[in-house]
Amino acid sequence: MSGPAMHDPALLRALAAEVGTPFFVYDAALLRARIARISRLTAAPGIQARFAMKACPATRILREMRAQGVWIDAVSGNEVLRARRAGYSAGAVPPEVLLTADVFRDNALEIVCRERILPNLGSPGQIAALVAAGYRGPVGLRVNPGFGHGHVAACDTGGPSSKHGIWIDDLLAQAALARRAGLTVALLHAHVGSGPHIEEFDENAARLVGAFEALLPSLPEVSGVNFGGGLPFSYRDPSDEPDLGPLQRILGDAHARFSRAAGRPIRIEIEPGRFFVAPAATLVARVTDLKSTRTNDKGPGCDFIMVDAGFCDLVRPAMYGAFHRIDVVGSDLGPERPWAVAGPLCESGDVFTRDAAELIEPRFLPTPRTGDLLLLHDVGAYGVAMSSNYNSLGRAPQVWVENGVASLMSRRETLEDLLAAECDQPLAARVG
User: Fold this and answer.
1) Does pTM surpass 0.85?
2) Whole-angstrom Cα distance, residue 422 to residue 10?
């Protein structure tokens, strides 16, 4: 599922000539269609969608979310400020912006106190830190319900080995501690994830309904329950779209049951990240070379397509063997054969074609020529968001395409951008 912008060779070549490679290109129509799909899921009264903005925090993306009534889940003080600059309101009534962080760092506490946005607390230490900072008012409590499933094994959203949230057996005691300190528990939150199949999210959400239904009578100030994100997106076959009908029924049932148990209306929230944005962007790189190794006693040889994008642009394959579809755009492509696609970085891990065990797994791709374009699809989630300046490379530009017209969302970073924070400033601390 890629939008028209990702399948227009003339447009991609023109953009490459204008902004250079690598670059990210976003399809406006496709993004809006993804947002609309979730908006239809949450159209019933009492059900609200948030966007987990860590997936793609660009201002243009946030404005599109706000235009369709999607609220925000932020994970840092600066993400809160980015959401505010995109037009989201401060304050906790209604809580358009929620701050969910495992640890308060940098300016997070200052921003919570100043902007009065709703803080979502996942540990006793966070309750104490918030009170010490002088905050009094509504809070959320993030719960570890004892189960959960991320999209890969490295992402553990709930259960004994997950760092997220207050263990469910300790929740009421922590809520009482918060109440005595002058905090109002206004939201319950859990992120149980989904795994690769929507049925797992449905099952986890249904289990969560029973767990929270039993807690609500003991939490008289709660007005909302957040089921977290985790709606799956199939990177291998984006046409394999999940059926959201069962989830819609689960959310509607949860709204009715929670409201009945609490004796007041209870808002139900979900907060997808990748489901909204993953297919909306493509990373466009340029083929710089073709080269081969030879079979020896260490293993079989490998043929490499070398490109100018690396894991500084898209880290997911190197980080946990994530799969991204690959296409080659060229005018005189050779026959398909197994190719590994590798980047420019001074790391052996800078290879995009990896399996789940992070071993090189060549793909059958057409044979390109030097100068052809290579497309890494479905990078809208955690592409730019997790990019870096490794090897002192500037982050790649982002391009927005709407109705065939392109505009620059962010320019390529320069050396001056990279050096801007460096200084030689004396500090008061002394040895001894």
Assistant:
1) yes
2) 41
